[in-house]
Amino acid sequence: MKIKNENCKLKIAQIKRRKLPIFNLQFAIYALLLIALPLSARTKDVGPVRKGGAARIDVGKKSLFAHDVGNVRMTLSNWGEQGNPDATPGYLGFEYPLGSESDFLFSAGIWVGAKVNQQPLVSTGTDGDNGTNEFAPSLPIQDGFPWSYFPLSSITDNIAGRTYIKGAKQVDDDGDGLIDEDPAGDMSADFIDNDGDGKVDDDDDDNDGDVVPGSLDDDGDGRFDEDSNARGTQEYYTVYDDCDVSQVQSADADGHTSLNVQVLQRTYAWGEAYASEFILMDLIVRNIGALPLMDLYLGLFADPDVAAKGESGDPASIDDWNFYDAANLMMVQGDDTTDADGYGPGLFAMKVVRTPDSLHTLKISFSNFERVSGGDPETNADKYELLTSGVIMPPTAQLGDWRFLLGFGPASGSWILPPGDEMPVTVAFIAGRKLEDLRRNAQWAQAIYDNDFQGPQAPEQPIFWTESHPGRIRVYWRNNAEKSIDPITRVADFEGYAVQRSTDINRWFTLGQFDKINPDSIFDEEFRRENLNLGMPYDVFDSTLAVNADNGGWYVDGTHSPPDTVYWLDDRNVLRGWQYYYIVRAFDRGVSGAGVLITSIGRSYKGALAGYTQETWTQGNSVEQVFVVPNPYKGGHELEESGALTASGLKAYPRKLFFMNLPPSGAKIHIYTLAGDHIITLQHPSGGSDQFEWDMRNQYRQEIVSGVYYYIVEAGAEKKIDKFVVIK
């Protein structure tokens, strides 16, 4: 198959520098200067094996990365394709909800179509099972892109998971005593007249400095966004182009002719609950060729396979349906809810958020075509027709392996991109459990874009750490979150803390929750409870110093200026030798339309080895040190959730109680009811570990009932009598 290319006649390094009003240099989380990963063959179709580069940071090598701070985990690449069609280990295409292993996306990518010398051409990130690779990572360039301004050494993460530039600080540009409270003028590069003066973006001259979140050099001082307002909780960027024909795979029937376009892709994810189920993608399409691109249209293509955990291949792909939601300018795909092969728990959508023209004036084309029946477009002309037809295909009439495409362009006239010019586009990838949830998320995605990629924010992530002690893990945290001011509402709205624990980083439960005592009663949607005025730690615990508190407390740390309050909570329901993960989260009083906002989990958790530190722990030599966990036993605990396979191949979830700190010489454990009836005698061998796991069955293999039980531990001449409680 012939593959041809008109040479990119302008070298990237020689591109005429233009003002890039939409570039925000603090999105420069450098994760897209990525470590390349080897890629394996695709799973739905036997296709070519993609080859990655060496494991080193190099924007010219193919690399994957994932957004994972919200309730979705989305895989992106630095060559214009989203999803994980090659089944690269460790990645899912679009996991929702986070931690469920349900995957909603096989492959997606942008389409750019235009006429060059009257010939319709379309460059695509993917168009189906085998991808196209018509885009490839651009090499590093020195003019007009972020890394030429901020090398890796100048980038750092702050404690809230947002990325800032080292040395940057918020400042009062206009001397009114407030920081970043205005803009007094027009927000940069959103194509909206924010201040109602009839001027838009570059034409508006009344900005009073770099005070606009996410803006560029508004005040002309040569520094970009020195007020250091990040846009998302997690931000990535990359650059790719369609010039390298050697990368093309599964080319169209008429080959690939380069449009000579380069795309800057920036993506944003948020941890707050109201914004946690979508990813915003900001694109700048640049003409780096010598010829104008006429009648330009853009498209969103996806092959979503809405699949429950465990579904793969055809079972996951051939039972989907889709339709176009005109009110929200988005395509929606869902899974069959009635079949026996598993139900993907929700819906997937892609939405247009911003173009050079107002959204309500666009010419929209919606196409859905099916893999099994062979409906995929095969030529550049076929693809351009789908982008530009203006036809809205009806919802799918039957289940299948449906792809969809949303093409858009001007309703009148045409988009023309001369050499060196750029075109901005913003899109959203969205999930939701039900259609009303999906639409609400789409509206939030639009609202956040309209507010320069920002929305109401949770308080700062509390600074916290853990300490391991015999029989407990102590969690400490500082009060830095209590000083947080929401950047949108400008209100100091901190309300309380939640201390949470997990054994697998996916499932979390709350060890303790504290909030201010105040007259308001705000319903907390995440914790499914009202603000009960539980009190802060100094209200709940012994208000003297830490050493006098049994389970938690607070003290003033005089080593910092100004002094910090330090809180702590002891987790005593731990098993020696088990790895646990902890996080302290802060939540606010609630924002209208967004609910109560709580800091995201993301990767901010910390691990702790239960019951001892490697440096100080030694196995107990006295039965006096023996104890039972969990005590009381309340119907179950997280260490039972993984289950175990029985001899018949079924998965069972046996109850577990643990005797801890047993002596190395071995021991007998006699268990009795409160009335003195013998339940069972357990033999702990010598030379074993310091713990013994009991399945809570008597000597006749019957499960014990709720109640109070005594146990006697015997080791040589030593004995210990104690009790534990079982509540089922």
If strands are numbered along the chain, what order do they take across the biggest sheet?
7-10-11-12-19-16-15-14
CATH class of the largest domain: Mainly Beta
CATH topology of the largest domain: Beta-galactosidase, Chain A, domain 5
Quaternary status: single chain
Question: How many helix segments?
Answer: 4
Q: Judging by the overall fold, what is the CATH architecture of the largest domain?
A: Distorted Sandwich
Residue runs with pLDDT of under 50 for 5 or more positions: 1-59, 140-195, 200-219, 223-229, 543-549, 612-620
Note down, in words, how this protein is organized.
The chain has 728 residues and is mainly beta. It has three domains: 12-168 and 230-450, Beta-galactosidase, Chain A, domain 5 (Distorted Sandwich), CATH 2.70.98.10; 464-609, Sandwich (Immunoglobulin-like), CATH 2.60.40; 623-727, Immunoglobulin-like (Sandwich), CATH 2.60.40. It is built from four helices and 39 strands. The strands form ten sheets. An eight-stranded antiparallel beta sheet has the order 7-10-11-12-19-16-15-14, with helices on one face. It is elongated.
Give the tags.
single chain, 728 residues, mainly beta, Beta-galactosidase, Chain A, domain 5, Immunoglobulin-like, 3 domains, eight-stranded antiparallel sheet, 4 helices, 39 strands, disordered N terminus
How are the elements arranged and paired?
Layout: E1 64-67, E2 73-77, E3 81-83, E4 94-95, E5 107-116, E6 119-124, E7 136-137, E8 155-157, E9 163-165, E10 234-241, E11 261-269, E12 278-287, E13 294-303, H1 313-317, E14 320-325, E15 330-335, E16 347-354, E17 362-370, H2 380-388, E18 402-410, E19 422-432, H3 435-450, E20 464-469, E21 472-478, E22 494-502, E23 509-515, E24 523-524, E25 529-530, H4 537-540, E26 552-557, E27 564-571, E28 579-588, E29 606-609, E30 627-629, E31 633-634, E32 644-645, E33 651-652, E34 657-660, E35 667-673, E36 678-684, E37 692-694, E38 707-715, E39 718-727
Parallel strand pairs: 31-39
Antiparallel strand pairs: 1-2, 2-4, 3-5, 5-6, 5-13, 7-10, 8-9, 10-11, 11-12, 12-19, 13-18, 14-15, 15-16, 16-19, 17-18, 20-21, 21-27, 22-23, 22-28, 24-25, 26-27, 28-29, 30-34, 32-33, 34-37, 35-36, 35-38, 38-39
